[in-house]
Amino acid sequence: LLFPVSNLCGKCRPRDTDLLQPSLNFLYWSLHQTTPCSQQRAVAVLLSNVSLLELLQKVLECTWTRPFPSEPAYLSPEDALLCSGWLLAASLVIYQHRYNAEVHQTLTLDLTEVLNAIIFRKKKPVLLLVSIMQFLRAVLRQNFSSSLLVIVIQNTAQGATQPQPSPLEDAALHPLAMQQVFSLLVSLQNLLVHKDLLLSQAVVACLETLLEYLYVKNQDVALHVASQPWHRFLLLTLLNGDQQSVLQPEILRLVTLFVRYQSSNVISQKEISLILREAAEANLPELPEATSRALHLFLRQV
């Protein structure tokens, strides 16, 4: 079925949402719900379809060209198509790298536009933000070196002259810049305060991957970013919610992150003791799996 469905997608236009959205979902789940042997073949089939990848390129670009309503009451068909497009693109990036699959057509993406889609999120639906963050995590894990992607930067994408030499930190983090890193951090923190479960999971995962990327590129920068004082305010805001919030998996993962990067000015012995006390009083066998896993990682890190 991958052959006719992928060929059908390649003949569509981005506005053919009724046909494209379920088709892209089918391609996405075909990658994720099959055996490893079939998965490698499925990746090869999709990456060999030039028309499909050209269509996917157009769909992704609609993220920053189409207007979003001021107060989206529901996920519109256009938004749903964008979600499917970003999730499929993230999966193709991951599996192309895993199987070293041949690439017949690359996707060209402006890194500044991708980051701005999260930083200046306006009224984008939660699911779209989560989908873009999933894609950003995939490219961060590969250090922006995916064979499937051509990453351009807005300042130089249209033949503009090369900007002035970057600071040492910017050179080490290329293609990211320190200003973009801090802007992204602030935006992710603001999203965490909304306390939406799906969004919180995606934000914490994105923070984890971002700090891992920074640590590989420049350890001093990673430790500096992790120890920013506004993290302390965020943590206190999250911990001052309901009594059981301390054992929520997202908060446990966030605290684990600060412990891992030795952010003593963010996470103190008081918060660590609070988590240990709450864990000791909890009925551990009845904790949800995600909470148990996050608590296990926290204890190992401590």
Write structural notes for this entry.
It comes from Asarcornis scutulata. This is MEI1 protein. The chain is an all-alpha fold and 302 residues long. The chain has two domains: 1-153, no CATH class; 211-301, no CATH class. Helix content is 65%, strand content 3%. It has 15 helices and two strands. The protein has helices at residues 2-10, 17-32, 36-47, 50-61, 77-99, 111-119, 126-141, 168-173, 178-193, 197-217, 219-226, 229-239, 249-260, 269-281, 289-301; strands at 107-110, 149-152. Strands 1-2 form a two-stranded parallel sheet. Helix 6 packs parallel to helix 9 (178-193). The chain is globular, with a radius of gyration of 21 Å. It starts with a helix and ends with a helix. Mean pLDDT is 89; it is low at 156-165.
Descriptive tags:
mainly alpha; 2 domains; 15 helices
Quick structural overview:
This is MEI1 protein. With 302 residues, the chain is an all-alpha fold. It has helices spanning 2-10, 17-32, 36-47, 50-61, 77-99, 111-119, 126-141, 168-173, 178-193, 197-217, 219-226, 229-239, 249-260, 269-281, 289-301, and strands at residues 107-110, 149-152.
